[in-house]
Design brief:
The protein has 290 residues and is α/β, with parallel strands linked by helices. The protein has eleven helices and 13 strands. The protein has a six-stranded mixed beta sheet with strand order 10-9-8-13-11-12, sandwiched between helices. The chain has a four-stranded parallel beta sheet with strand order 2-1-6-7, sandwiched between helices. It is globular. The chain starts with a strand and ends with a strand.
Length: 290
């Protein structure tokens, strides 16, 4: 029943200790800042979160790269050689080619190991939304689900994994092509903050705007209140771009109004943080719909 391994990629932004506890195998993406390449390890072993976000505050040029088929094979093949199957839960296909590369690697490996299965799910998730998704599927596995049952559970979960986020620096979104230069300049002058989400197709889209940082954080709480199901059974995941105090302020707002079990906090990883900049706050739960 448990003879399969859950694999994800480093855009899940899970705390390294939690990923280790769950026995996950992780495919790593990379980020290039100026002329230095850093691997997106969950434990930030090549650059600390503080140092990375200091570079983002200095508006250093950053770009990201997805793993290759060879990178996937290096992680997946040893699992198959042990006689185990694989369930890969990947970063949104609307934001990266990672999951499509994983699917190609899976096809090649199943040809080499015809007695083994590698099933892939495009989670349409990002950051700790992907992390929460992985956690929910892992809990299903721990409850005794087979590979096929866990795969179907994951497919059914995709439209219910809610993501909301806000950024403090519109110029970071402008550098990533998400808003125009005029919008970034005017919005920054007026303290306009966007409220965004990851939609049913895994894309980043704007839900609206508010004026002021605290109002944008409160708007995230309001979105959760509208969408969450069975809050007493849920641990809420919150990721942030080196602004933990504000992330915990969001948790306090939620705890006062919604009876959730608790919270998991972590930094937004460098691959996603390269596009959102410092000060991003993202909120995740299971809801009626995205």
């Amino acid at each position: 029943m448990h003879n399969f391994v859950i694999v994800t990629d480093s855009c899940c932004d899970l705390p390294a200790s939690l990923a280790e506890e769950m026995g996950l195998e992780v495919i790593h993406l990379n980020v290039l800042v100026e002329d230095q390449t850093y691997t997106n390890y969950l434990d930030w072993r090549e650059i600390t979160a503080g140092a990375f976000y200091d570079l983002m505050r200095e508006e250093k040029t950053a770009s990201t790269s997805a793993p290759s088929i060879g990178d996937f094979a290096a992680v997946l093949e040893p699992v198959l050689q042990q006689g185990k199957d694989v369930l890969y839960l990947g970063f949104s296909s609307a934001l990266s080619s990672t999951v499509s590369t994983g699917m190609l690697a899976a096809q090649e490996l199943m040809e080499q190991y015809p007695d083994r299965k590698v099933l892939c799910v495009d989670t349409l998730c990002a950051s700790l939304g992907q992390g929460l998704f992985v956690r929910k599927v892992w809990e299903k596995k721990q409850a005794g689900a087979s590979l096929e049952e866990a795969y179907q559970f994951a497919r059914d979960l995709v439209p219910h994994l809610c993501h909301w986020f806000t950024v403090n620096d519109l110029h970071a979104l402008q550098r990533g092509g998400r808003v125009s230069k005029t919008t970034a300049v005017v919005g920054s002058m007026l303290q306009i903050k966007p409220v965004l989400h990851v939609d049913d197709e895994g894309r980043l889209t704007k839900l609206g705007t508010v004026r002021g940082r605290k109002a944008s954080i409160a708007a995230l709480k309001d979105k959760l209140k509208e969408a969450i199901v069975n809050p007493e059974e849920q641990t809420i995941y919150i990721s942030h771009g080196d602004c933990e105090e504000e992330a915990r302020y969001l948790a306090d707002l939620i705890a006062k109004e919604v009876p959730v079990k608790g919270f998991v906090f972590n930094h937004v990883g460098p691959v996603i943080g390269a596009h959102t900049g410092a000060g991003v706050i993202a909120l995740f739960c299971v809801g009626k719909q995205r």
